[in-house]
Amino acid sequence: MRRGLRRAALRLAVGSLLLAIGGAAPSAAERPEILYMLHCRGCHLPDGAGSPGSVPDLRGQLGSFLGVPGGREYLVRVPGSASAPVDDAELASLLNWMIGRFGPAEVTRDFRPYSGPEVARYRASPLTDVDALRAELVRQIAAGAPGSP
Which pTM does this prediction carry? Predict the structure, then answer.
């Protein structure tokens, strides 16, 4: 695990250095991971574990939200996503990367990746009562709501 984190940190450092000296920018495949490091991992931690009681654990749970009504929208509308200093296409790419990294086992075969325009629609109305909606979605997931994995 530590080796992977060191490798990711090294890629970020090298990418930043190359940009600073006019070199090549990170590849499209590396960009979402870098966005996670810059905007998400401070709270959700490098491995997605979060902090019990305050920051949700993404591991083995993130993909489950896609299988309940309103869950897909929720992942975009939570404050950390909705207010992230990235554009809509970048947020779509970041969410798709996070789902693949932290919740692939829960994703159904009919999953379609987020797109920039979809993210823009959801992001336009941020959540006001995050805890209540999350609790309801988690309840639906636990109950095996129709469409849940």
Answer: 0.76
